[in-house]
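Example record for the data management plan.
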Amino acid sequence: MQLQYLKGEIALKNSILGLERAILNVDNTILSLERSREDIQGSELSVENALIAVERSSHDVELSEDALEDTLIKAKIGGIITAKSFQEGEVITAGAVLFQIIDIKQVEIKIQLGEGDLPMISEGQAVVFTTPGYRDIEFSGIIERISWTA
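Corresponding structural encoding:
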C-alpha cells in the first residue's frame, strides 16, 4: 500500500510538472504571439512609411515636371539658332551657353552671280532669299552694295 501511495504521489508530481511545463509552453507561445503581433505592427508601420515616401516622391516628381514645363529659355537677341552646346538629358547650369544664334536683323551675305544676271540687280533693290540650311524660311533684305570683284 505504501508503494502504491508513493507511485501515486510520483505520478501526481509528474502530472503537476507536466502541467507546469504545459503552462510554460502556453506562456511562451503567448509571448511569441505577442512578439509576432508587434513585428506585424512594425512591418505595417514600415509599409505605411514606405507608401508615404512613395507618395512624397511622386509629388516631388510632379513638382519637378511642372517646373520643367514652366522652364523657359530666352535669348537676349532674336535670330536663328546655328548650333547647340548641350545634349538631351544633360544638366544645364545657370549662365551656360546653350545655343549659337545669328542676329538676322542685320546680316551680310555674299553671292556670286553670272555676268548675264548682273543687269537684273541694283543697289537699294529688295530681295527675298533662302539658304540651304533653312530652305523653308524666306529671308528678305535690301542690296546695299554690289562689288564687281569676286
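Summary line stored alongside the record: The mean pLDDT is 89.
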